[in-house]
Amino acid sequence: MEQAIAAAREQLGLQNAKEALKILKPFKKTLSNAGQKELELVQVYADTYLENGQVEKAYPLLEKSCNLDSDGKVGGCSKFFTLGQITGGPDGITIIMKGIENVSTLAGNSLSQEQANMIVSGLLSMIEIWMTDLCMEPEAEAQCEELISKAMEISEGKSSEVWSTLGSIRISQQKFSEASEAFTKAWEFFKQKKAYLEEQLSSGSVSTHTEYLDLLQPAISLAKMCIEMGLYEVSSQIIAAVKDIDEDNIENHYLEGFVHYLTAKLEQFKQQNPSLQLSPENIYEFNEHFQEVPLDITNETLKDTIYDARVALSFACKLCENADSDDDVAKEIAQGASSLLNELGGPLDISELMKLRKGEDVTEVDDIEIEVTSDAE
């Protein structure tokens, strides 16, 4: 069993949940009567189901592992944060608080960086619950302020995720200037972390690889928030950084095209309203009504921006074609990209996309097939 668990963990590190499930399958019957001796099996099964998108199967195993290891001394405390996130609501808050309490107890007077990161992650998860499931509660705003202050203190104001969450809180309070400042700060600290991890990777640190890949989703989320605030230049920089991590990420290609599309619309709007003084407030309002602004694709000053949008969105559509047939996210992105391309003058021809494929000498249509294994799974 120990060898199977180690092999499954290795496959999870390679983002191959399906292979991990195959390895674990002979021990599936053990789960129903698992005790503390089988805790590691329960936990790896839960992690594998989560990685494979099977939350409904992971949930009871997470509950079981938390009950078997209520203080987190045997199998660690991360399961409490995961279970709390999935559970949501008041119960989710309670579970996450239990996780934070366990980490603090295990740390004693000396909190390691890993433990600090875990507590900060838990605090941010609690904020997310207060901003969604519990947003109508009278104490929601006060709770968010208290939790973000704690997270900022523990992270010493150097966490991209904490600054990004602060930006989200400020948007909900309609403090758009402060939100923009927070997202800009988030990008600064993201760049620092990415550069540090790349330095570690170049020196041969294998363990850093997973941490580097883990930058992907927070970066995409930050790019979306920057787009929402009209920080198009910052979002473009983030999108470029994501390409370093995963060159063929479907959502990132879509966001790249979407940023160019919005940039073109905003530039046209500025041309039509030359006396307009742009601010975080009116750009945020513009973003809420951008679909009402018809785009003049014959405008020569917008020609390059429109072309860049078509390139990125055309690549997004091509990537979606190669995604798994049951990938609902890819289907949604394909629909959105096609809709924007209709407004922009249509997708680029496949031969033109092949010429634009960076660093490749493509001679046949089949060579444009883009590997999207990690996105499809």
TrEMBL record:
It comes from the Eukaryota. Coiled coil: none annotated. InterPro entries: TPR-like_helical_dom_sf, TPR_rpt. Keywords: Repeat, TPR repeat. PANTHER family: ASSEMBLY CHAPERONE OF RPL4, MITOCHONDRIAL IMPORT RECEPTOR SUBUNIT TOM70. One of its GO terms (biological process) is protein import into mitochondrial matrix. TPR repeats lie at residues 160-193. One of its GO terms (molecular function) is mitochondrion targeting sequence binding. GO terms for cellular component: mitochondrial outer membrane. Belongs to the Tom70 family. The keyword Repeat applies. This is UPF0661 TPR repeat-containing protein YDR161W. SUPFAM superfamilies: TPR-like. Gene3D superfamilies: Tetratricopeptide repeat domain.
